[in-house]
Write a structure and sequence with these properties.
The structure is a single chain. The protein has 217 residues and is α+β, with helices and mostly antiparallel strands. It has helices at 2-50, 64-77, 83-92, 99-109, 136-146, 166-176, 201-211, and strands spanning 112-116, 120-124, 149-153, 156-160, 181-186, 190-195. The protein has a four-stranded antiparallel beta sheet, with helices on one face. Strands 1-2 form a two-stranded antiparallel sheet. The longest helix has 49 residues, at 2-50. The radius of gyration is 38 Å and the shape is elongated.
């Protein structure tokens, strides 16, 4: 009987030891899990602190009509010499726009570059509405300012301008309603004009060269 009691006693001690170790392991695991959760929460809080708030005052994309209205106002109030400068002024006014967008807006508005005292050229919007033909003196001024060479082949006319100015000449031609011109395609410093077949490129080229002051009348 004594031996049985001793065996029972050792079994009881063994079971108790296992239970204690199990409890300790569970407690350790729970503590580790809690520490990991706290660390994750802290990391998330730090990450959230680094994310800038959306919808701040840095700027916003305005609708096209609103943006173009602001561009027109800026051109009236400032001597804007480049599209880059116009993008900067829009940003100061709270409007985000790329240079490509601004370039299209200037074309839509019919803006052209004009020379002011001091030999500086700035963007300006002619008084004539864009949907009306521009007067010939306006076309003559633009061509005289920006056209360097006029050549032709069959019903095509090629116009050379200073770098970055071809679109200015194209816009003026598109609004002029000059006879024989079907349309224009502008690059950086080269403009191609498609003429009516029965008019031909020679006639249009001669007219443009005259307006640009490249030939004597």
């Amino acid at each position: 009987m004594a031996r049985s009691q001793g065996s029972a006693s050792r079994v009881g001690v063994t079971a108790t030891g296992r239970a204690d170790r199990t409890s300790a392991t569970n407690a350790t695991n729970a503590a580790n899990a809690a520490n990991a959760a706290n660390a994750a929460n802290a990391a998330n809080a730090d990450a959230d602190a680094d994310i800038p708030a959306t919808g701040g005052t840095a700027g916003q994309r305005a609708p096209k009509t609103q943006r173009q209205s602001r561009i027109a106002r800026l051109l009236e109030n400032y001597a804007v010499t480049s599209q880059t400068r116009l993008v900067e002024l829009l940003a100061l006014d709270g409007v985000v726009a790329t240079q490509a967008t601004v370039s299209r807006d200037l074309e839509d508005l019919g803006a052209v570059k004009v020379r002011v005292p001091g030999s500086e050229t700035i963007y300006a919007i002619p008084d004539a509405p864009k949907d009306r033909p521009a007067p010939e003196d306006h076309l003559r001024r633009v061509l005289g300012e920006w056209v360097a060479e006029v050549s032709w082949s069959l019903n095509l006319v090629v116009v050379r301008t200073p770098p970055g100015s071809a679109h200015v000449v194209a816009s003026a031609l598109d609004r002029s309603g000059i006879a024989g011109v079907l349309g224009t395609v502008a690059g950086d410093d080269t403009l191609m004009i498609v003429c009516e077949a029965d008019v031909g490129g020679a006639v249009v080229a001669a007219r443009l060269a005259e307006l640009a002051g490249l030939v004597e009348r």
